[in-house]
Amino acid sequence: MNTTALLIMLSSQIGVSLFLAYFLYRIFKARGDKSKQNRSQNSA
After folding, report:
1. How many angstroms separate the CA atoms of 32 and 41, rounded?
2. What gap in Å lies between CA 1 and CA 43, rounded to an integer?
3. 3-22 pLDDT, tens per residue?
4. What are the pLDDT digits (tens) for 20-41?
5. How distant, in Å, are the alpha carbons of 14, 17, 25, 38, 42 from that of 7?
6. Exposure string for 1-12, b = 16+ CB within 10 A, e = fewer
7. d(CA 41, CA 17)
8. How far apart are CA 26 and CA 39, in angstroms?
């Protein structure tokens, strides 16, 4: 197995993991924003 193929595999795996992490981060951030909005509505 040559090094170029190994590097391509590594870079693609890193890219996929970064994309998944960003996606999950966006979902959790959206959930947090929603809960904050609900709290402000309840107090008002």
Report:
1. 14
2. 63
3. 999 999 999 999 999 999 99
4. 999 999 999 988 877 776 666 6
5. 10, 15, 27, 47, 53
6. eeeeeeeeeeee
7. 37
8. 20
